[in-house]
C-alpha cells in the first residue's frame, strides 16, 4: 500500500512514517516508480514504534529494541532484552527524578502565589 493508505490504516501521519524511515525504525519497500510500498508487517512495526515512542522512550532506545522485539526467544535475545529493560528502567528512573524536581518547583511557585495573594491590597 502507498504512504497515504499506510497512514490511514496505522493511524500515523505520512510525515511520521517518513520520519520513522529516516530514523531507521522502518524500511518500507519501493515500487518500480520509487514510491514507498508498505506491507502489513511494516504497518505492524509502525504500531510498535508508535507505542514505544508514545510511552516516552527516546528514538535511540526504540531503534535498539526493534531488532530484538522481532526475533524469537533464544538465549541471546533474552540477554539483549534484559539489557534493554535495564535501559528502560534507567530512563524511567531519570524521568522520575526530573518529575520530582518539577513537583518541588511547582510547590515553591504555589507557595509564592499564596503568599503574594495574602499581601495584595
Automatic annotation (TrEMBL):
The keyword Transmembrane does not apply. Gene3D superfamilies: 1.10.1660.10. Residues 1-68 form the HTH merR-type domain. SMART domains: HTH_MERR. GO terms for molecular function: DNA binding; DNA-binding transcription factor activity. Pfam families: MerR_1. Keywords: DNA-binding, Repressor, Transcription, Transcription regulation. InterPro entries: DNA-bd_dom_put_sf (IPR009061), MerR-type_HTH_dom (IPR000551), MerR_fam (IPR047057). PANTHER family: MERR-FAMILY TRANSCRIPTIONAL REGULATOR (PTHR30204:SF69), REDOX-CYCLING DRUG-SENSING TRANSCRIPTIONAL ACTIVATOR SOXR (PTHR30204). This is MerR family transcriptional regulator. It comes from Actinophytocola xanthii.
Amino acid at each position: 500500500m502507498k504512504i497515504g493508505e499506510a497512514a490511514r490504516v496505522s493511524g500515523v501521519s505520512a510525515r511520521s512514517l517518513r520520519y520513522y524511515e529516516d530514523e531507521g525504525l522502518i524500511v518500507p519497500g519501493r515500487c518500480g516508480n520509487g514510491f514507498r510500498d508498505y506491507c502489513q508487517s511494516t504497518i505492524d512495526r509502525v504500531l510498535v514504534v508508535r507505542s514505544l515512542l508514545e510511552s516516552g522512550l527516546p528514538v535511540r532506545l526504540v531503534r535498539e529494541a526493534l531488532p530484538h522485539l522481532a526475533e524469537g526467544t533464544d538465549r541471546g535475545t533474552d540477554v539483549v532484552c534484559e539489557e534493554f529493560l535495564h535501559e528502560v528502567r534507567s530512563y524511567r528512573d531519570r524521568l522520575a527524578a526530573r518529575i520530582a524536581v518539577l513537583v518541588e518547583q511547582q510547590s515553591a511557585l504555589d507557595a509564592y502565589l499564596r503568599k503574594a495573594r495574602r499581601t495584595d491590597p
